[in-house]
């Protein structure tokens, strides 16, 4: 509780003597209704500093070396010489604050379904970043995803190389899994996050570069530039709330608009604002957007009306949303000051908000939340989510998946409004779990009855499974609900499949009544009047069992399977569908009970729904999911991996697979006892301690299964799950050069000497005969680095054998320098040839023909000799007396 003598911007006693200093600090522009709340005392931040700070990450998904490599090879490579080395660690440290903010929003958006997809990452960028930075990061995400989709061989390169990125995508995936951003992390979510953070780092540096030539960007200059940037200062502060819309001195700042200023521009938002204030209407809109406090609901409605009617239309706010926004922006001093009369004693202190965000930030964040669910209105939960992000000490629950406020809007007609109300009422009746209400709900539903899909793409059975309402699930199944109904695909004319690149707040140029005069108008979100589909493109073809498996409701999954639910969800062997199977979802979460249940009902661990269409260049296209084996290895679920590999049905002829025809090479390999002996030795050397199970019969996988295991090893190596990688090696999965190098590098970082020796033993299995660029540029430096720091004799001997294998056992012969020394050269046919000769040497009475230019260039002695009178005749003749002719 703040004391009565606090220097807070607001006081609890309106109009009293003790509130006069606070009132003087409230610089109110009477015509613009704007409050400037500059911080004037250091104790303003005492409460925030001690209770509400960002989390300091112990492990980052990048290193200082990764940041330096990014600056050297990215868009900033032309300016890397202007950056001091002390700035690199500071950049990395500040970037982690932005990562924490974005990751927290991803985590909240992923919680209802448990799936962290690229769409959640995209929405988190829009929620946290200003429009210009969000637009830039979104474009970078789409570029990286498109490059990843059309990359060549998928196991010979790292995911970062395939995406054209410098930051390691595999480390991002591992970090997202470790901090539980979702129960299941999709591969493209890691690509989006890595690409967005890489682009954000470049934007920070480009905006902070000094304008003076030959000036080095130091850490202090970096901090100063960030303090004067309205787009960066609040984002990179250590406080948990996003203090957006201000700079370090407390002055309000408008964000940059992506459609007006280039992202590479060094112009600040302030300079752009000064240009726009030359127009009176633009100044009015800007002042309305910068308002931080209001004294009445009428004043708030007037401000929103100015923004809405001055050239742009914002998403309409419901009455509850307006009340919530007024609650957070209300200032009792303004309210009582407008009424006049005697001072009013307040019964509670003002909320301990040091500085309030401007209206533009309220609308930006709330609109981003509405856009995430494809809504055409802002409800009170959107405002509460914005308050949680923008105000210190404010929190609210995660939005429920079934939460949907039906509000009458001018954008929908009466028939559509009635349809929505009827559908909402019917779904509430069906989810109640009461048989009589479920039967009566059919009167409000179309011909699909209980299998009707709502505007969010869910059936009532799916919603009951998501909220774990077992009673409602049983009642719906008894009423005839089909458990195999799939979530629909987004509409073909809807832009929900591809993340919209338009920023949350866009700027249009409209012509006013004055000829030649143009004003910027601000519009929020999507202004389309058509009814949009709210179907989630990431959950297309999902069934009720898929949602249940991901959320881990085993009892409900058992009921669904007993009632005829397909164990593979929407995936079918006869059709190519980009979806996620229940077993893939359960393997990502590590739910052993759910995995065992699905395997018992015939789920296939090696089934992949991934669409490898190299002709699709869209970075937002849906491409399905890898096999459950690969999903388990990527998420580090070692126990689930063992469950999947030990499933007896993997080796049964009842799987519907065609019998494989072995080649002659494979037949000979199977009969090679030496190969079998070598493989058994490798199995005994694996990390998992399989020596206790040596007597057990090792499983034998077919060709397609071995290919899937090879793919699983790639994902485990990329995610730095070294123990899983070595366990897969114990199943005789052959190394690829990339997996071997990555595993060796991870073992070296973790200082696992035993694993390093095991990997070095396998060198002959992966050494490329042609010494590829990857081997020369990545493998050899790593081997020499291990040789430099290792003190183990066994490791040094193994490295010696490897180097001898690479460079040969014989001593390296000295290489003769065949480069020509400096000096003039002539064609050999003119040597001792009278043709074109201009000097002669007489040796033992014989003549040797030469050329002055060659002699003068080669020797200063000849230069002096030929320029003196010692040489007589034309051409000059030089007498040589002390040497034989053949030697000369």
Automatic annotation (TrEMBL):
Keywords for this protein: ANK repeat, Repeat
Residue stretches of each ANK repeat: 456-488
GO MF, one example: protein heterodimerization activity
Biased composition (Basic and acidic residues): 690-699
Region of interest (Disordered), ranges: 675-699
Domain BTB stretches: 837-888
Biased composition (Polar residues): 675-688
PANTHER family: ANKYRIN REPEAT AND BTB/POZ DOMAIN-CONTAINING, ANKYRIN REPEAT AND BTB_POZ DOMAIN-CONTAINING PROTEIN 2-LIKE PROTEIN
Designated name of the protein: Abtb2 protein
Gene source species: Fopius arisanus
């Amino acid at each position: 509780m703040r004391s009565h003598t606090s220097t807070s911007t607001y006081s609890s006693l309106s109009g009293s003597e003790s509130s006069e200093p606070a009132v003087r600090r409230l610089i109110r522009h009477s015509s613009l209704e704007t409050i400037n709340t500059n911080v004037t005392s250091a104790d303003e931040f005492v409460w925030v500093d001690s209770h509400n700070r960002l989390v300091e990450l112990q492990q980052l998904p990048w290193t200082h070396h990764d940041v330096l490599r990014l600056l050297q090879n990215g868009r900033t490579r032309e300016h890397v010489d202007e950056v001091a080395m002390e700035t690199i660690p500071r950049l990395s440290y500040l970037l982690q604050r932005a990562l924490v903010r974005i990751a927290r929003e991803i985590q909240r958006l992923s919680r209802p379904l448990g799936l962290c997809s690229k769409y959640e990452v995209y929405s988190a960028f829009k929620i946290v970043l200003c429009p210009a930075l969000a637009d830039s990061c979104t474009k970078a995400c789409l570029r990286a995803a498109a490059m990843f989709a059309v990359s060549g061989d998928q196991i010979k390169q790292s995911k970062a190389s395939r995406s054209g990125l410098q930051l390691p995508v595999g480390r991002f995936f591992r970090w997202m899994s470790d901090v539980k951003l979702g129960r299941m992390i999709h591969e493209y979510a890691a690509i989006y996050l890595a690409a967005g953070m890489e682009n954000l780092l470049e934007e920070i540096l480009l905006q902070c570069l000094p304008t003076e030539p030959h000036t080095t960007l130091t850490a202090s200059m970096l901090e100063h530039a960030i303090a004067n940037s309205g787009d960066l200062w609040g984002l990179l502060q250590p406080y948990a709330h996003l203090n957006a819309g201000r700079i370090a001195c407390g002055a309000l700042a408008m964000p940059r608009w992506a459609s007006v200023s280039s992202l590479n521009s060094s112009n600040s938002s302030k300079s752009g604002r000064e240009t726009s204030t030359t127009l009176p209407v633009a100044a009015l809109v800007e002042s309305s957007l910068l308002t931080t406090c209001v004294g009445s609901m009428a004043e708030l409605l007037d401000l929103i009306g100015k923004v809405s009617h001055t050239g742009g239309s914002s998403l309409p706010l419901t009455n509850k949303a307006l009340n919530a926004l007024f609650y957070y922006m209300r200032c009792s001093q303004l309210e009582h000051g407008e009424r006049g009369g005697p001072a009013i004693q307040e019964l509670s202190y003002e909320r301990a908000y040091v500085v309030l965000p401007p209206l533009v930030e309220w609308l930006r964040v709330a609109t981003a939340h509405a856009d995430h669910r494809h809504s055409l209105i802002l409800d009170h939960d959107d405002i509460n989510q914005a308050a949680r992000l923008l105000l210190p000490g404010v929190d609210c629950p995660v939005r429920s998946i079934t939460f949907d406020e039906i509000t009458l809007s001018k954008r929908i007609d009466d028939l559509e409004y009635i349809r929505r109300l009827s559908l909402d009422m019917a779904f509430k009746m069906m989810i109640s779990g009461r048989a009589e209400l479920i039967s009566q709900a059919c009167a409000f539903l179309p011909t699909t009855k209980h299998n009707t899909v709502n505007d969010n793409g869910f059936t009532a059975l799916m919603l009951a499974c998501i909220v774990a309402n077992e009673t409602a699930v049983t009642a719906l199944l008894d009423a005839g609900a089909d458990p195999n109904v799939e979530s629909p695909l987004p509409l073909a004319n809807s832009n929900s499949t591809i993340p919209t690149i338009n920023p949350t707040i866009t700027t249009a140029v409209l012509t006013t009544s004055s000829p030649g005069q143009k004003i910027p108008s601000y519009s929020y979100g999507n202004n389309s009047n058509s009814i949009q589909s709210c179907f989630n493109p990431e959950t297309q073809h999902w069934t009720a069992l898929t949602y249940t498996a991901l959320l881990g409701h085993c009892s409900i999954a058992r009921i669904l399977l007993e009632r005829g639910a397909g164990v593979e969800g929407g995936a079918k062997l006869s059709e190519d569908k980009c979806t996620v199977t229940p077993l893939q979802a359960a393997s990502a979460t590590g739910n052993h009970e759910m995995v065992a249940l699905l395997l018992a009902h015939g789920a296939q661990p090696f089934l992949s729904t991934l669409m490898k269409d190299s002709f699709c260049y869209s970075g937002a296209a849906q491409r399905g999911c890898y096999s459950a084996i690969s999903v388990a290895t990527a998420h580090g679920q070692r126990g689930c991996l063992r469950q999947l590999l030990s499933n007896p049905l993997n080796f049964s002829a009842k799987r519907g697979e065609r019998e494989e025809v072995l080649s002659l090479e494979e037949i000979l390999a199977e009969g090679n006892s030496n190969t079998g002996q070598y493989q058994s030795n490798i199995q005994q050397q694996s990390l998992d301690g399989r020596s206790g199970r040596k007597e057990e019969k090792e499983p034998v996988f077919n060709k397609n299964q071995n290919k899937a295991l090879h793919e699983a090893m790639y994902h485990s190596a990329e995610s730095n799950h070294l123990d899983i990688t070595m366990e897969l090696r114990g199943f005789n999965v052959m190394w690829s050069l990339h997996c071997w190098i990555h595993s060796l590098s991870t073992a070296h970082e973790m200082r696992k000497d035993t694993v390093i020796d095991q990997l070095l033993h396998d060198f002959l299995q992966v050494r490329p005969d042609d010494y590829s660029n990857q081997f020369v540029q990545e493998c050899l430096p790593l081997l020499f680095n291990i040789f430099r720091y290792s003190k183990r004799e066994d490791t040094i001997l193994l490295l010696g054998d490897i180097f001898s294998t690479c460079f040969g056992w014989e001593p390296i012969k000295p290489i003769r320098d065949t480069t020509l020394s400096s000096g003039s050269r002539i064609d050999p046919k003119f040597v001792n040839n009278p043709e074109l000769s201009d000097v002669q040497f007489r040796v033992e009475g014989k003549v040797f023909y030469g050329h002055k230019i060659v002699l003068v260039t080669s020797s200063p002695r000849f230069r002096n000799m030929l320029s003196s009178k010692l040489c007589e005749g034309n051409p000059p003749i030089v007498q040589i007396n002390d040497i034989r002719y053949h030697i000369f």
